[in-house]
Amino acid sequence: MVYTVKEMFYTLQGEGAQTGRPAVFCRFAGCNLWTGLERDRTKAICQFCDTDFIGTDGEGGGKFKTAKDLATAVKALWAGKSGKPLVVCTGGEPLLQLDDELVSAFHKAGLEIAVESNGTVAPPAGIDWLCISPKIGSEMIVTKGQELKLVYPQEGGDPSQFEHLDFDHFFLQPMDSETQAENTVKAVDYCKAHPQWRLSLQTHKFIDIP
Question: Which of 2, 6, 27, 156 has its CA 20 to 30 A from that of 96?
Fold first, then answer.
C-alpha cells in the first residue's frame, strides 16, 4: 500500500484521556464520512468536522511507498527526545490506511500507537490506544477500546446509547461551532448528572498549538 498523509508534526495531545502528552501526529488523507470539500458538507454524514484532510500538502505530508518509510519519517520527528515515542494516527479516517504492516513497522521503530477513528472501520490488531469518536448517522462497528469520545451535542446522539460499550474512558467534547459556549454548558451539565462521562476540551485550540 502507498500511504497518503496530509501532514505530520510533533506537538502535545490536546484532548481526551492523554491530554498534554507529547506525540507525533500522523494525519492520513481521506475519510469515508465526508469528502472534505465544503460544497459537500451539507450532504455529509459528519457535518461538523473541523479538520483539513485533503491532499498531501501539509507539514510533513506526502505519499509513502512502504510502511517502513512512513515509520522512519514518524520516528525522525521524535529524534533526540526521551520517553516512550507516541504516534497518534488520525485523519480523516486513519483506519482506511492503517494496516497490519504499518502497525508492525511502527512497533519495530519503537513507537506506541494511538488511533483516533470514527468507529466505522475495523482496526488491525496491535493498536495500543484506540479512541473512537462516534458520528451519529454512521454505522459504528467498533465497540471496544480505550476511549470513547463523543462530540456533543449531536442530533439523535444521546450519550446513554454508548454507555454499555467496552471502553475504559467515556468523554463528552463540546462541539466547536457558533454555539460552542452553549454546547460546553450542556456537556458540563450532562457529565455532572452522569458521572460515567468526563469532559474533554480541545486544549490545543486554547493555547494555539497544532
Answer: 156
CATH number at residue 20: 3.20.20.70
Give the mean pLDDT of 58-68: 98
For residue 198, give the 3-state DSSP assignment.
strand
Task: Count the neighbouring beta carbons within 10 Å of the beta carbon of residue 5.
Answer: 26
For the stretch 76-86, pLDDT in tens is 999 999 999 99
d(CA 123, CA 46): 20
pLDDT in tens, 117-164: 999 999 999 999 999 999 999 999 999 999 999 999 999 999 999 999
Cα gap 10→27, rounded to integer Å:
12
Q: Which domain does 65 fall in, by range?
A: 3-207
- Residues noted as catalytic: 25, 31, 46, 49-51, 116, 204
The count of structural domains within the chain is: 1
SS3 state at 70: helix
Phi, psi of 6 (to 5 degrees): -70, -45
2: Cβ contacts below 8 Å, ≥ 6 apart: 63, 64, 65
